[in-house]
Amino acid sequence: MKLLFLPLLSTCLILSSQASAQVTSTNKETTEQRDARIAWWRDARFGMFVHWDMSSVAGTEISWSRKGSKPLDIRGDGPGYVEDPAYDNLYKRFNPVKYDAKEWVKIAREAGMKYLVFTAKHHGGFCMWDTKQTDYSIMNTPYGKDLLRPLAEACREEGIRFCIYYSQRDWHQPDYGIGDNRKYVDFMNAQLKELLTGYGKVDLLWFDSYGKGDLVNFWRVGETWNLIKELAPDIMINNRLCVLGGYDRQPVPFRGDFATPEQRLGSYNSKRPWESCMTMSSVGAWSYHTGGGVKPFSEILKMLVFCAGGDGNLLLDVGPDAEGVIPADQVSVLRKVGDWLKVNGESIYGTRGGPYLPTARYAATRKGKAVYLHILKWEGDSCKLPALGAEIASSTLLSGGKVDVVNNAEGLTVSVPLSDQKDPDTVVKLELKVDAMAIQPIKPFPEDEPAKKKQEKKP
Ligand code: GLC
User: Fold this and answer.
1) Less Cβ around it within 10 Å: N or C end of the chain?
2) Distance CA 146, CA 131 (A)
3) CA of 444: how far to CAs of 126, 163, 356, 441, 451, in Å?
């Protein structure tokens, strides 16, 4: 691999679309250092997203089910604040007595997930930790105890990377979006400081966008960035700390470490790291929802396979109920994914996507001299792919059984008896005579259907 020693700009000058002032950051990282910093996350491939707050008491969507909040994205822009006493008082009934952080982390670990992202504060502004910046927190519920600390501790004990979701939108803070937004940014930075200094190592911050507003004077994004990097130099940050002409169009470093396709699977991209965030809920709910069930195991497993095959991660979302329990139907699907990974994990963890670009019939991952073919659709006992263009030393099935592979100029034909095929994915390991990473991406046959990207139902 060619090593790049191009230093990133030590000072990054950003011109915002709405303001011509400058934002500065103290970013001195080289590409090589960046790759080393995010290697754990790339290797992990699979994480748990947890959307949870007092909205679970009503069983309606977190934050978005609060009436009249959306216009507050930037105060003054919309029809203005609408009272929603039903939603705003839910916290008075929030008492998750069955919350067991160790149990959650165990569920994640047994599902084969390597990191966990928790909504410390969603758009609704309710804080799940003992913040000193507002009373609108878990400390003023009947429960009255910090929910973040036990989770941070349990993650550390179980070797799961601990990551925090923090919404910069805040539909409850009276200072949010008022005037020059100065008071709110001070509040937000003080909260970030609490989160980054009070809970041990935080591996990743998952931001969730501002509404509108000038990044330079209104959001002071450089100040927030520098604060985070000062407190946690190795931390990862997603691409939603600021929006400048859209996600992933922000200038370095504010573009963050990875792209975040939401409720859709990312396309193959070996250059820009990405993570699809997807709900387990069949109605696309992020948080606990009384209507709707869970997507089937086969659909969820295919999400993971298409993400890994596209060289991306899957952040799979669960929504614990008002007592603090992850719903049993979600847990049962997660266990199946974990069982599958026990057998087939080497084809996911530590791999990179390709060389075959994913189609509806197959995806591929690779590591060292190995290519892992994930065959999702067979024609009888065989599946034909475009030619590999590299010599194969041996082929095996990760789940055991017979496999025969013929590779010539017309294509690569894999044959596995019906009795050894697995639903929904049979993993064939090809051991090559050359480095699998050196193979250029291989396009599907023109008649091949592309991999399904979007989930069918919308929240
Ligand atoms: C969106 C939604 C939010 C959800 C997030 C997860 O931005 O506003 O409810 O938390 O996506 O990606």
Assistant:
1) N
2) 9
3) 47, 36, 7, 10, 11
User: Could you tell me if residue 449 is inside a domain?
Assistant: no
Of ligand 1's listed atoms, the one at least distance from the Cα of 263 is 12
Least confident of 218-222, 232-236, 281-285: 218-222
- Does the CB atom of residue 136 touch ligand 1 within 6 A? no
Cα 315 to ligand 1 centroid, rounded to whole Å: 12
193 pLDDT higher than 90: yes
The residue out of 230, 258, 286 marking a domain boundary is 258
Q: Does residue 350 come out as left (phi exceeding 0), alpha (psi in the -120 to 50 range) or beta?
A: left
Q: Is the CB of 277 under 6 A from ligand 1?
A: yes
* Inside any domain, residue 344: no
- The pLDDT value given to residue 79: 47
In terms of pLDDT, which residue wins out, 254 or 70?
A: 254
Mean pLDDT to the nearest integer, 262-276: 96
Both 247 and 362 in one domain: the answer is: no
CA distance 325 to 21: 48
Going from the Cα of 248 to the center of ligand 1, the distance in angstroms, rounded, reads 16
Closest CA to 259 of 284, 286, 277: 277
286 touches ligand 1 (CB under 6 Å): yes
CATH number of the structural domain spanning residue 434: 2.60.40.1180
How much is the average pLDDT of 427-454? 92
Ligand 1 neighbourhood includes 208 CB (under 6 angstroms):
yes
Does 17 share its domain with 129?
A: yes
What's the 159 CA to ligand 1 centre distance in angstroms? Answer: 26
State whether the beta carbon of 210 lies less than 6 angstroms from ligand 1.
no
Nearest ligand 1 atom to the CA of 277 is 12
Residue 171's pLDDT is: 87
Query: Which atom number of ligand 1 is nearest to the Cα of residue 122?
Result: 10
Section 255-268 average pLDDT: 96
Residue 34 lies in a domain: yes
Task: Evaluate whether residue 453 is within a structural domain.
Answer: no
**Among 258, 287, 314, residue at a domain's last position:** 258
| Atom number, ligand 1, closest to the C-alpha of residue 165 | 10
8 Å CB contact between 189 and 227 = yes
Instruction: Give the end-to-end CA distance of the chain in Å, rounded to a whole number.
Output: 43
For the ranges 46-60, 96-110, 437-451, which has the lowest average pLDDT?
A: 437-451
Cβ–ligand 1 contact at 110 (below 6 Å): no
pLDDT score recorded for residue 280: 98
103: domain range?
Answer: 2-258
- Whether residues 246 and 392 fall in one domain: no
pTM recorded for the entire structure: 0.93
Based on its alpha-carbon atoms, the radius of gyration of the chain, rounded to whole angstroms, reads 23
For the cut 50, the answer to whether the pLDDT of residue 459 exceeds it is: no
Q: Which ligand 1 atom minimizes the distance to the CA of 260?
A: 12
User: Where residue 247 sits, what CATH number does that domain have?
Assistant: 3.20.20.80
- Domain count of the fold of the chain: 2
Are 246 and 358 in the same domain? no
